[in-house]
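Filed under: proteins

Residues; backbone shape codes:
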Amino acid sequence: MKGRENKPHIGIFGRRNNGKSSLINAIVGQDIAIVDAQAGTTTDPVKKSIEIFGIGPVVLLDTAGIDDVGEVGQKRIQKSLEALKQIDLALLVITDRHFGEPEKRLVTQFEDFAIPYMVVNNKCDTVTAPPAELPFPVWDVSAKTHEGIDRMIEGMVKIMPPSAYISHSLLGDLIGEGDTVVLVTPIDTEAPEGRLILPQVQMIRDVLDHDAVSVVLKEDLLERYLATHEAPALVITDSQMFGRVSQIVPEEIPLTSFSIVLAHHKGDFAHYLEGTPHLDKLQDGDRILMLESCTHRTSCDDIGRHKLPRWIQQHTGKQLHFDFVAGLDTIPDIRPYAMVIQCGGCMITHRQLLNRLKPAVDQQIPVSNYGMAIAYLNGIFDRAVKPFRR
């Protein structure tokens, strides 16, 4: 169950008119990217979903030229560089084996973000001079004649990190065949009309994949269920119900939340564990950055925009300032923030989430997750993360 944002992302980078869009068409085998002889046809990063045998569904990011000019051109380059935070693999497209300063700077950024990359020498069918020697592997291809394209794709499959496309279990070894897992899913004004939210659906599927039994109920039926049924192997609740649910579920039954499961599955769990207790160290005037992985209409019941900030203020008794960044929008200068709190991240990839938090981690700013923060505020942090400390 992968939406576009959960598929591996492959970024296509290079100078203008090096044939980046033509290369995408050659990979896909059809004309899906606009191609023109005029340099600078691609202005902003454009996403295209395709399937690559050996990897599966992926998203190709066609970016603007890294040698664009003028004030607008610099903005396009910046947009292309921001795409580095989204990708799992990079293709750096050159021609005539020309590898200059713009390419060197880009490779340095690939390495800073630990992004595996391939240098692809396009238009090899038009070169008559002997190929220049470069101190690293180069894939010679022709997007026009498709020479070398299959070999290049084989290389992509080999160096794509398996973690980008192999879907690991959310619940790992927490449950086994025949176990019962209770999923507490409140239906309030935040709940989408007529359906469950993505983390709840993902959890149900993972329980079924374990050949276990999934029991989905609202919080007001939980006490009755526990009193009339055998104790479940695990209870997973919506984070905002932690306070109430923890009083109902006996201590001997493992308890956690959807958000914490996601934090362990794709987040920076070790830094979450370390950073969450910093909630007790916040001071008057501190700024907190709230990171949401999706964009949506908010209401007065919104957990990230309203409830969690209010609970933090009440817990600390301090006057705090909260800023919000949604989706994959650019994060402002991270240095003024005393803390960063990230949502579960159900709409983005593992690498995208790690890169969202990287500026804060690099600056040693404490980071947390919605569910872990709420558990801490309710005094059940150790209990909520205990299933994942084993």
Q: What stands out?
A: Residues 33-43 have pLDDT under 50 and may be disordered. The chain has three domains: 4-164, 180-261, 268-382.
